[in-house]
Amino acid sequence: MSAIDIATTPLGGPTLAQERRLVTSIPGPRSQELLDRKAAAVAAGVGHTAPIEAVAAGGGVVVDADGNSLIDLGSGIAVTTLGNAHPAVVAAVQTQAAQFTHTCFMVSPYESYVAVAEALNRLTPGDFAKKSALFNSGAEAVENAVKIARKHTGRQAVVAFDHGYHGRTNLTMALTAKSMPYKSGFGPFAPEVYRAPLSYPFRDGLSGEDAAAKAISVIEKQIGAENLAAVLIEPIQGEGGFIVPADGFLNAIVDWCRANGVVFIADEIQTGFARTGALFACERFGIVPDLITTAKGIAGGLPLAAVTGRAEIMDSTHSGGLGGTYGGNPIACAAALAAIDAFENEGFVERAQQVESILKGRLTALQEQDPRIGDVRGLGAMVAAEFVDPVTKAPDAALAGAVAKAAIAEGVIVLTCGTYGNVIRFLPPLAIGDDLLHEGLDVVASALANAG
Ligand code: PLZ
């Protein structure tokens, strides 16, 4: 069994050489060996984007077992926003792991869980008393937000939106819009989940107000406010295609929820923690959610998720009604405290705004030369290009897939997304340098020029 050779493998973190370096084709022989073992040992349903064996990562690069160094424009799906193996996160993990790895917070509480809750209560949008509960994954946070909203309102129905993504568990599959690959064949799905139309400016051409009126009409006519516990929405749809709703859309939905006693849940699992150029995307739209779900960036790569919100809603659940063996694991909480400190004090919000101007500047320049890029959109370090037929605007998933594949072969990790699979999304770690970011975009641009 080939284990990582500590003597020859570089440590990760920001001191890792910040360069794109290809010493073999991708995948190289050692990576291929792992991929063969994966194919034999790991269930076929668990896919992968970049055909490499990762051995170290940091700043803006991922290094593979063959010594290739790839530019990272995906952050492990918006997780390593601080840069992989951020030194403060590493130190916090090491210290906590040597102290205790687990007690179960429901058995013997410890300080770091409470401190994470205090930090979330302080930092999430809303100038009112808040409380939090911690979980393991984004999907689990969404499930619990729905449980809490149902208990609080005594109502059952939940509205999610077209293009929404909320996870892969049974309830969150029901909340997720796209069938393939997330839901197909995995039903039956949880009941009392309804779907409303989203604002999608590039495709619906509607103002935020008009799009909201359309969604509200569907909600009122097909469900009825008196039956509705919660409206759940990502401020910017992530997996669904980085869709930024038109101005005023979210505000109108929030106002309607408030007027009707419906809990408004912002799913900020992908958009949270500086990703969009604010600590939370809600701030960029001027909205305040009743409950907010967070995960991904929260703990610098450790698995942790949270539901935070109005104290009276969070407290509506009976004692013992929320929990789980590992929720708020002490190592994940220690990592989160280090990560949150970095988010607050190391200029990451400002860095996300700089990354936005680089990404949008480069991609809109590319769009001017190439009409196959129908739309460039996003906020902060969460920007995407939607590929279309230049005449009909029909989604071109084959082109997006080909460009992403060619970029990876040239040493740049990019991810696709979108209901139609025709979007390339850029989610660089905020620790990436400008030069490396530009080089990554150069590679994507030439992959596009060479495609089709
Ligand atoms: N809500 C908004 O983006 C996770 C999923 C990747 P978990 N997105 C990446 C995949 O194909 O599985 C996500 C999200 C939003 C919820 C989730 C779910 O978070 O931590 O993956 O459960």
Keywords:
4-stranded mixed beta sheet; single chain; Aspartate Aminotransferase, domain 2; alpha/beta; 452 residues
Summarize the structure.
This protein has 452 residues and is an alpha/beta fold.
Describe the protein.
The model has no long low-confidence stretch (mean pLDDT 97). The radius of gyration is 22 Å and the shape is globular. A seven-stranded mixed sheet has the order 4-10-9-8-7-5-6, sandwiched between helices. A four-stranded mixed sheet has the order 1-2-3-13. It has a four-stranded antiparallel sheet with strand order 11-12-15-14. With 452 residues, the protein is of the alpha/beta class. The chain contains 15 helices and 15 strands. The two termini are 42 Å apart. The chain has helices at residues 29-41, 75-78, 87-99, 111-123, 138-153, 170-175, 201-204, 208-222, 249-259, 281-285, 311-314, 330-345, 348-369, 397-409, 434-450; strands spanning 54-58, 61-64, 69-72, 130-135, 157-161, 193-196, 228-233, 263-267, 291-294, 305-310, 373-379, 382-387, 412-413, 415-417, 423-426. The chain has two domains: 6-85 and 348-450, Aspartate Aminotransferase, domain 1, CATH 3.90.1150.10; 89-345, 3-Layer(aba) Sandwich (Aspartate Aminotransferase, domain 2). A hairpin with a 2-residue loop joins strand 1 and strand 2. 38% of the residues lie in helices and 16% in strands. The structure holds ligand PLZ.
